[in-house]
Every structure is written in C-alpha cells, then in structure tokens.
Amino acid sequence: MSDANKERNSCVSANVGGTIHVVADFDRNESQIQAIPLHRCTNCQGYLNCFCEVVSPGLKWQCVLCKRVNVVTDPFVYRDNAYRQAEAVEDYNRRTFEFVPLVDDVYEIEAPENFSIKTTEPPALVFVVDCSLEARRCGLLESVLDSVKESLEHAISTNCYDARSRVAFFFYAEHAYVLNRNGSITCVTGPMPIMLKEEMSFNLYEETKAVLAGMEGVLGHFGRIESGHTNLLAAVQLAATAFRSGTIYAFISSMPNSGIGALKQKSTLLPHEEYAKTGRILNSRNISLSLYMCTRMPLEYAQMRPLVVGGGQVYHYANYDGTDPVYVEKLHSDLRNQICSKTAYNALLRIRCSDGAGVRHVFGNCIERGNNLFGYPNYSPSHSICFNVDVGTRSEPVYFQMAMIRVNQLGIKTIKVQTIRANGSEGGDPLYSAMGCFQNAVEKELVKQGTGRVFLDQSLKTLFSTGLDKTALSTYFSAYSKNLVLDQSISSDFRAYYAYLFTNSSIEVLAAMSYPTLINVADAEVALPLSQASLVSDGLYLMDSGVNLYLYAGEGYDTRGLFSEEVTSGVTLFDCFSDNELGRYVGELISYFTERRAIKPRYILVLENEKSSYGEIFRKHLYDDPMRGLPSAMEYYNRNIN
C-alpha cells in the first residue's frame, strides 16, 4: 500500500490541451503561525517562497511568477557561503537559509497591522435543528442536542475559540423557533423580525454550560408538536438576520415541505431558486452553512446545495436512527471534529500564476469575487482547493501561488501561502490527470445530466495522445464512468452529495473515491484490481472507498475467530474484534486507513453468505468489471487504443 496520497499536499495533472488541473490540500498540515516580515513582489504582488532565487549577498530575490528582482532592507542570512551547483533552487534554499518562506512551500504568518483585511466579529456557532415529528420519530432531535452538548463542552475545555465567541440555537418544524437568553422559546409565525444577536445568543465560555444543562426543557417543549411540516429556510433566514460572520450547523430529517422553501421530488440536479437566494444572503453576511442530512427518506439535497456554497461542509447519514449507537457515534464524531477543527473565518483566496498562465475555473464551495479572488466565509481544513489553469503549450515549469487572508478561531489575522510548481508538459501520475477530468465532468453533470459521461469519453481520447500510461488511464476512466454521480438511476441526494465530495475533498479521499484500495487481509502489501476475479470465497478483504470502509468476508470465510460476538452485515462500529492476533491485526489495518483522515469514514461489514443489499453496494465498486452496460477497464483500453 502506497503512502503517497496520505502525505501529498498538492497534485498537478498533465498539460492537456493547454490546461493544467491543480488540487491543493491547503490546510492538510497545521502550520505554526510565524511573526516575521512580509515579503511581496513589487510587480505582481506575489509572495516570497521556496522557489525564489536569492541574489548574493542576500539583498535581492527574484519572483518566480513574473521574474521581477526585488530588493530587501534586511539581508537574508546564509547558514554557509556555499554556491548553488546543479541542485534545484528550493533544495538549495532549504540547505542554505532558515527564513521560513524560503524553506517551506507552505507557510503562515501574522498579517501586518496595516494589512488590508476585513475586521470580523468573533466566531458565532449557530445550531439550526429540525424539531418536526419525523425528527423526533427517528431520534434526530435528542441525539443532535446530546452531540452538540458534548462537542461544545470539548471546545470549551480545549479553549479552541476566541473568548468572545457566541452560541445560538434555532429550531424549525412548520415554523421557526429561537431559544432566548432567559431559556424561553419564541415561535416566529409572521414576517421575519430583525433580531439582535445579544438577545438570543450566549457567550461560549461564560453562559453556554447553563443553557446546555437545560436542554431537557427544550425536548419537552417540542414534544407537543405533531406537525409533519418542515420549513428549513425560515430558520436559516431568521438566523442570518442576527449575525455577521459565523457558522450555521443545520440538521434535517426530511424534505422541506412548507413555506417558500417547500420542495418537490425531481430528477434534476439543478438548485431551487429560493435556496440560491438564501445562499446569496448567507454569503453577503459572511455566514457559512454546513448541512447534516440525517434522513430515512429523500431530501432533494441537489435543490438545496446553494446553501453550502460559502465553504460549508455536507454530511449524509442514510437511514438515520437516533437510538442506534452506530449512527449516533458517527454524527457525534463528525460534529465534534468540525466544531473543534481549525476553521478559518472571512477568508479571501487569491490565486496567482506564472506570466502567461491564467486561472480558468475554481471548483468546490467558494464564492467567486472576480480577478482571481475567491471568498470563503468558512474555510475547512478537510477541504481542498481545486482549479484549472490555462498554460498554453509551454514546456518550462509553471508556478501557481495561493495566498489566503483569514481570521482563525482565536481572532488572529493571518496570511497563509502555498506555492506549487508544475513541470511544464510532464505528465506525472495519470490518476491526477484523470481526477481533473472527472471534476470537470461532475460540474457539467450538475448543469445538464448526461453530459458528464460524454465529456469523460472525449477527455480519455485526448489523454491517450499524451505520454501518460494508457492502461492506468483506462482503469481510472472505467471507474469514473461507473461512479454513481453519473448514474441517473440513483437518488439525486446521493449523486449531489458525491458531487460535493468530488469537488471539495482532500487528495487522499479523492484518490480513494476515484479508485478504491482493495486488499486481501492475508496479504495486505498488495492492492488488488477492482474485479470479482480478485475475490476468493474463503477470503477476508478491506476496501477503502474514501467515505466508506468495507470489511468483506467471502461466502466460505469463518468469522468466528475474527469477532467476539455474532455479527451481521451492515453499518458498524467495528468494536467487537476478538482479542487475538487476527482481531488486533485487522484493527491495525483499519487504523492505518483512517489515520489523519479529516472525516472519519463510515464502517460497513459485508458477509457474502447473507446475500444482503450491502453486498450489492460493495460490488458496485468493482469498477474493472463490466457494469450496467458499461465496458470493463480492458474494453475501455481496447476501444481507445484502436
């Protein structure tokens, strides 16, 4: 098993038709904030970085983006006076200097006092919770309040927020409700009132514990609601009137069916206009919304997705049961990780390129501001930054630089810089070229169904004309063509959710979703082809598909030595392995696949002898085989090589 995608913080595609695709895990590694001088190019405003050449004796440096030679007041200090020979500039800089921007390709510094950055309010954590009849039937309301309580208590104990941070609680069924400072609950039924945050929010450190202790009263209050109507937009719009900057954590159990945000089931992936309007309101107020879909029925998330465009995260819990520890633990883990992660607020990202190159498109949950500037009311460390760049036919290296101005959870204003080099026309790993094509295909599919697969077929023909490995390309494109995002027979909720994942996730998760890693537990060093032919009836296998981790036991495999109790196929916690060599080994393998994963995958046990639906789901990842009338990977190769 390769660790390449676990350690990588950026990947670059081949130059295909004059376009390069870049994926950067901007916040993969937590960087120490440096209190050092800021050095920028006087011509293009790019930042000093490890690819810049310092002109001896250290009073000048050359910008890699525009080649301008810049002068510094205080010279860079050399460790020694050795001259650079044939080694790359970045290697020489790391050996010669200690100044962080010349040593690291990613660094973060405190923003100077006079630096232009919008003053932000302290973080606001706003919870918008479904309290409808369905939410109570599936146990969502109670399990969410328990998870919020534990997550906030952890945030308080670890002091991970600004001391002025606020917390607020909104609820919704047919109408919107707000929890007041005195513990009472107000129902809003008429025109949307203008609310002051001081009237309905609590200081995270000084007041929240008392509020959380009284949540039993909240459950009792909503226990009398018998309405099956839900009006998510009413609660979101109400919350948006009170805050400028912050995060809304919205929990939903069923499709909104009341008010202007009422939805109807459609096969389209296009957004609903009222949700697009509300998304623009949130963005204008620097509020990010993250959506937790805890559902036992279709939601029409595709129509709601404009709500999360401002850097929001999306979580999907199909068949949610708030009384089942498997679902509750996953929800709690995700919520606590998001609340306690190093979220950046009011972030602005500028992407600069070498002279002659230009950004064509940025993917994912961000707001385009123009002139290669992109806004993120929240920027999550679990997200990546993906973009296309027009570079023409040049063969020399091309440089891309991302600079994000932001405010962290403690109220410190910083600038984070990452610089990436693409080696001209060199292809590199074919996975990253295929991944870039698929991200483009996903966006086309969201606009018009059926166009994604057409674009993939055209892209594969183009890539076959490059020097990339054609067998590998055929394998990846075979997998992408069978991905559920492009399968119109699949629920639009799943398709839109996976579209979100494919345009926002980290490189490691993207790689696993693109072509899952399948291993035989008996020989875990070798990844197997995704084919039924790789599976033997008495074998035990692990498959990492990015968001799901499968443990598959063949029909002839005896699980009694692996588990300490009787098990069945389904979503699981993997908490009952036997305390023996095999049980410990499988537990270690699972830990290996999930370590440092920003979002914990869902664990699924598949016992082939049960012939369950989970076996069918597992086999849908065997992308090398023909499936649903689509050719095998080898057929893809033969069809395009001729």
From TrEMBL:
Residues covered by the Zinc finger Sec23/Sec24-type domain: 39-73
Domain of life: Eukaryota
Domain Sec23/Sec24 beta-sandwich: 344-422
GO MF annotation: an example: zinc ion binding
Alphabetized Pfam families for the sequence: Sec23_BS, Sec23_trunk, zf-Sec23_Sec24
GO cellular component terms attached to this protein's record: COPII vesicle coat; endoplasmic reticulum exit site
Domain Sec23/Sec24 trunk: 121-338
An example Gene Ontology biological process: intracellular protein transport
Family: Belongs to the SEC23/SEC24 family. SEC24 subfamily.
Protein name in the entry: SC24A
Source organism (scientific name): Enterospora canceri
Lineage, opening ranks: Eukaryota, Fungi, Fungi incertae sedis, Microsporidia, Enterocytozoonidae
